[in-house]
Design brief:
FAD binds at residues 89, 91, 107, 109, 116-117. The chain is of the alpha/beta class and 281 residues long. The chain has helices spanning 4-31, 116-121, 157-169, 192-201, 228-234, 250-262; strands at 40-51, 54-60, 75-82, 85-91, 103-109, 128-135, 147-153, 176-183, 206-212, 222-223, 242-247, 278-280. The chain folds into 2 domains: 40-135, Beta Barrel (Elongation Factor Tu (Ef-tu), domain 3); 147-280, Nucleotide-binding domain of ferredoxin-NADP reductase (FNR) module (Rossmann fold). The strands form 2 sheets. It has a 6-stranded antiparallel β-sheet with strand order 4-3-6-1-2-5.
Length: 281
C-alpha cells in the first residue's frame, strides 16, 4: 500500500521547488533593465577620455544590483533630439552584464559633423540618454565555433571587444580568436591595453594584428589596407566551425567581403544572420 504521507511530502517538495524556480526567474528578470518596446533614460555617471575624439561613457542603471540585460553580441538603440529631429543610432556596449552591475559603458568616437556622436561629447555628468533594446541578429554562445576571425576598423572594435572579453573570462570557452584591427594612426588604436592583456595572458587562444594607414618608423605591425593576403596570414582558414565577424566603416566592410570570398569564405548576405559564415555588425 502506498504511503500517503510520503506522497504528500513529495508533492509539497515538488510545489516548493516549482515556486522557487519561478521566484528565481522573476528575480533575475527584475534585475535586467533593457526593454525592446519602450525607450528608457539613463544618466551619465562617468567618462574616460581615450583620444582627442573618443571616450568611454558610463551610464548608471536605476538600481545598483541591476544589469543591462544585453546578450553578448547584440546592441542597443540610442535616440536623441537633434535640431528638432529624433535621430537613432546603434551602439554595442563594451561592458558585460557579468562585470558591470549597476551600469553599462559605451565606446563613442565623436565627429564634428556627427549627430548623436557629437551629442555624446556634449553630455555632462547627470545628463541622460534614451535607450531601447536589445537588438541584433547575433548572440554569442560559448564554444559555438572552434575559431573566430575578426576584422575591425576604428570603433568597430566595440562588438569584437565585447565578445573577446566574454571568451577570455570563461575558462570553459576554448574558442580561438584572431583579430585584425585597422586604424589611421597609432594613437587611434582603442582599448589596446585591454586587447593586449588578452594575448599576454592567453597567447594560445588570442592573436591580434594591428594595422595603420599612417605608421611611424618604429611601427612593427601592418600598414595600409586589409588585403586578401593579410587575411590569409592572420585569420583562420575558412572551414566548418570557423566564423568571420566584421565591423567598421562601409568602404572597409565592402572590401573585406570581396576579399573573404576570394580566399574561400562563403559570400556574405545583404543582412547577416546568426549562422552565416561571415557576419557583419
Amino acid at each position: 500500500m502506498v504511503n500517503t504521507s510520503f506522497l504528500f511530502c513529495g508533492a509539497v517538495l515538488l510545489v516548493c521547488t516549482i515556486i522557487a524556480v519561478i521566484l528565481e526567474i522573476q528575480a533575475n528578470q527584475s534585475k535586467t533593465v533593457l526593454n525592446k518596446e519602450k525607450l528608457q533614460e539613463f544618466p551619465l555617471v562617468g567618462k574616460t577620455i581615450l583620444t582627442h575624439n573618443t571616450a568611454v561613457y558610463r551610464f548608471g542603471l536605476p538600481k545598483k544590483d541591476q544589469v543591462l540585460g544585453l546578450p553578448i553580441g547584440q546592441h542597443i538603440s540610442v535616440q536623441a533630439n537633434i535640431n528638432g529631429k529624433e535621430i537613432v543610432r546603434s551602439y554595442t556596449p563594451t561592458s558585460l552584464d557579468s562585470d558591470s552591475v549597476g551600469f553599462f559603458e559605451l565606446l563613442i568616437k565623436s565627429y564634428e559633423k556627427g549627430n548623436i556622436s557629437k551629442h555624446f561629447a556634449e553630455l555632462k555628468i547627470g545628463d541622460k540618454i534614451k535607450v531601447r533594446g536589445p537588438k541584433g541578429f547575433y548572440q554569442y554562445v560559448p564554444n559555438m565555433c572552434e575559431e573566430i576571425g575578426m576584422i575591425a576598423g576604428g570603433t568597430g572594435i566595440a562588438p569584437m571587444y565585447q565578445i573577446m572579453k566574454a571568451i577570455f573570462a570563461n575558462d570553459a570557452d576554448k574558442t580561438k580568436v584572431s583579430l585584425v584591427y585597422g586604424n589611421q594612426t597609432e594613437e587611434d588604436i582603442l582599448l589596446k591595453k585591454e586587447l593586449d592583456a588578452f594575448v599576454a595572458k592567453k597567447p594560445d587562444q588570442f592573436k591580434i594584428y594591428y594595422m595603420l594607414d599612417k605608421a611611424p618608423e618604429s611601427w612593427t605591425g601592418g600598414v595600409g589596407y586589409i588585403t586578401a593576403d593579410i587575411m590569409k596570414d592572420h585569420l583562420p582558414t575558412p572551414a566548418d566551425g570557423v566564423q568571420l565577424l566584421v565591423c567598421g566603416p562601409p568602404p572597409m566592410v565592402s572590401s573585406i567581403k570581396r576579399n573573404a570570398v576570394s580566399i574561400g569564405f562563403q559570400k556574405a548576405k545583404p543582412i547577416s544572420k546568426m549562422g552565416d559564415q561571415i557576419f557583419v555588425f
